Amino acid sequence: MSEQNIRDDPRGNPPLLATHLRAVLTQLVRRLREQSTVGDLTKSQEAVLLRLKREGATTATELARAEGMRPQSMAKIVQTLEEAGLLAGTADPADGRRIRLALTDTARGHFENGRLAKDDWLTRAILKSLTPEEADLLAASVPLLRRLTQFA
Prior knowledge:
It is a single chain. By secondary structure, this protein is mainly alpha-helical. It has seven helices and two strands; from the N terminus they run αααααββαα. The longest helix is centred in the C-terminal third of the chain and has 25 residues. The relative contact order is 0.09.
């Protein structure tokens, strides 16, 4: 092993492992995002849709607060998403003056199709890029990665 390879080997070096892991996971997430898009949406529009998918219906004011943006900016995002058929507003049952925004069936379909496209790409990548032994090693790392995501 050359001196350069020894310096780049993250085994036994947690800070270097963290750097390598962050970089490779960032690349993997980027490749997965490339596999599926919900049209030509901005990052802010995607963030709103993802928040609604995770947390359910809410008001534009609550969305603006959660996303750290001005209500006027959120109003433009909401209008664009409504025009695209991805969001729909209904009167709040507790206060009919408030409008609660939720994903439409079209938006849910885009998320499902996107998830399937990502799974398909990753399956093909595993089958074509890794040996069966390497795939088993990758499978064994999933619980470890899951534990890392739960670290507070």
